[in-house]
């Protein structure tokens, strides 16, 4: 990795920046690549980090977008975000150049299955063997709680609280949240714990969902059940909005750090508001 020179007594400023507990592992990998590229550019242009101003970032942005590199606007925006965050971390917020980020491509609307399709997906796991019972519980929990695939396979036995009807979730960047446990999900998980998990368990292991060898699962286990299990999370958010939940509540339930991430579902909210308006307003 190209190093970034900083006139400071401490070494490895990039490593210290990337060690931030607020970064998910995927963000950490992306930012490491971004900063390595930026470090190479600083070296080629004979600059140090302290020399970076608006003009320097404008030149770097232009290089990213032209010629053989020709990066997408979204990639350039992420790279600049990494650089500006690193400058703020290393030199202080006052030293961050106030450069406008390039416009991102319009975010695609989530592909959320309708309720009938969700029911069909959940029905594919029906069966009587331990793995079928486990799979049914995983899919039901994914949809009923709006979990990411990594969150599902990362659940521990103590994370499911049947008495409080809640699930403790460890999300991206180590952020924790509590989500309600629905009746059907509770029944599916309880059935799995009673009828399937004992035959899968091998020794002391507090992971909720186990493989046929009694080991923790990885995210590929859910992808084998359906090509894109994240669609169930989209369905969770969409169906809650259609049922009257507000975006701020959905943000908390999904574990989004920013409301802007949740606002991708606002098209659903707009349709719901239109229906309310049409049915309620005398001039509609």
Structure write-up:
The protein has 284 residues and is mainly alpha-helical. The chain is 53% helix and 4% strand. It is built from 14 helices and 3 strands. Strands 1-2-3 form a 3-stranded antiparallel beta sheet, with no helix packed on it. Strand 2 (166-170) and strand 3 (176-180) form a beta hairpin. Helix 5 (115-123) runs antiparallel to helix 6. It is globular, with a radius of gyration of 23 Å. The relative contact order is 0.09.
Uncertain regions: pLDDT < 50 for 5+ in a row? none
- Which strand order does the major sheet show? 1-2-3
Please bin the fraction of helical residues.
40-55%
Q: How would you characterize the largest beta sheet?
A: 3 strands, antiparallel
Oligomer: single chain
User: Please, what is the average pLDDT?
Assistant: 85
What order do the SSEs take from the amino end to the carboxyl end, as H and E? HHHHHHHEEEHHHHHHH
